Automatic annotation (TrEMBL):
Belongs to the AHA1 family. Residues 35-128 form the Activator of Hsp90 ATPase homologue 1/2-like C-terminal domain. This is Activator of Hsp90 ATPase homolog 1-like protein. Pfam families: AHSA1. It comes from Kibdelosporangium aridum.
Amino acid sequence: MKDVLDELAAVRRVMGKGSVPAGEAYTVELRRRYDAEIEDVWDAITSAERLRRWLKPVTGDLRLGGKFDLEGMGHGEILRCEPPRLLKVSWLFGPDADDWPGTSEVEVRLAPGPTGDTEFELIHASVADPHYFPTYGPGAGGVGWDLGLLALARLLAGDESENLAEFDKSPEGREFSRRSAAAWGQAHLAAGGDPEQVAAAVEATTKFYVPDLDSR
């Protein structure tokens, strides 16, 4: 458990403001360091073979201007690709995604560290849905990205012994998600969120990612 919680603590989380083609957006920002060369991290976030091992299987044209599909997570277009430092994609998800183009974008920035490591920054900008965001706050996407970055850390370290779906259901995975939801609550408060609304959003996010075992 300690190693998993150390990975959770390695991430700096910020809720901010930004913009996407559809208008003003809120952002969830995750920053951390990976003990891997920048070329290795770049390959892990752009190679279809490696993406499926920490995120989801991906199909499509993985080049600038190409369109892709992430199994069960949505689809989008590659907007910027500057190896090995910057990747930006549109990110559409949900049953009505095609009716809301330009509402969500993900940008990943990499920088080489001083000792052969890599500084990693992910910014997900989304137009705030008037019903969804007040219910879940930034943790809705933030917890998912925390789980993804944990899986990426394991891939880069050569440790993929546990299936991601099984990890999510394990006591260790459930505790990770609980603490991640609370951490995004702290980021929401730091961004000026109303304490009562933030507390309710953390509770709703926790129930989403850590449902009662009897309901599975």
